[in-house]
Amino acid sequence: MEMKKRISLELRNRTPAEVAELVVDNCRTSDGEIEGLTDEFKELEFLSMVNVGLTSLAKLPSLPKLRKLELSDNNITGALETLAEKCANLTYLNLSGNKIKELSTLEALQNLKNLKSLDLFNCEITTLEDYRESIFELLPQVTYLDGFDAEDNEAPDSEADDDDDDEDGEEGAGHLGEYEEEEEEEEEEGSEGGEVGLSYLMKEDIQDEEDDDDYVEEEEEGEEEEAGVRGEKRKRAAEDEGEDDDEDDD
After folding, report:
1. Which residues contact 88 (CB under 8 A, 6 or more apart)?
2. Strands 21-23 and 46-48, how do they pair?
């Protein structure tokens, strides 16, 4: 996608003056120049043009409020004077992965008085002897070069990001712990429910056995009563027969 069209899409029904951050990474320029970016973006504070094929910054508009500029993975070789002229308030500049070879190319950045962080990863200039010492001497306003200061202390932004990641991890672990506690509670409730259900079933089985025993006892009592009745009948029949015999003898 062409840079001009990409910028138009990134507006999202806003006017350029309403945009504070603009990211147009991986789009394409027709001749290595910036296209579609105008002075109307006067409130812009963050601009990212990573891997867009830039060879020149000549058409960079005036962006007085711009603080952070990402220009990594392009083909910029020099002519950095434009940055001091158009973006005087820059505090962070990323030129990693460009064609910067000589220390003299960076002399134009001396006029960026507020520049605190400069990244030159994967630029040929990083292979120079005493590269870091030379940059800090040339640009005394720069505190962090490639993410570290002159004494190899990491930039605060990176530390803040790490802290945020740790907090996110702790928060995530907290949520996970709560989830596990809920699961354990549910398992305990299920276990208690299972025990109650089991006890209930056992009681039912016991009750059924008792009922069966009662039924057997009732049957036995019934049989005994029937046997008694039959015995009584036989006794009476025998007595009746005896009486009949007596009468015959008379």
Report:
1. 64, 111, 112, 113, 114
2. parallel
Cβ-proximal residues to 115 (8 Å cutoff; 6+ apart), any chain: 90, 91, 92, 93, 109, 139, 141, 142
% of the chain exceeding 90 in pLDDT:
60
Stated pTM of the model: 0.64
Strand order in the sheet with 68-70: 21-23, 46-48, 68-70, 92-94, 117-119, 144-145
Residue whose structure tokens are 């105008």: 38
Query: What backbone phi and psi angles, to 5 degrees, belong to 173?
Result: -65, -35
Cβ distance 72 to 97 under 8 Å? yes
Each residue's pLDDT tens digit, 1-56 = 999 999 999 999 999 999 999 999 999 998 999 999 999 999 999 999 999 999 99
Q: What is the token pair recorded at 156?
A: 């605060």
Provide the token pair at 7: 């910028």
Within 10 A of 89 (CB to CB), how many other CB atoms are there? 14
105 vs 71: CA distance, rounded Å:
16
Would you say residue 119 has pLDDT above 60?
yes
Burial class (CB in 10 A: 0-12, 13-18, 19+), 231: exposed
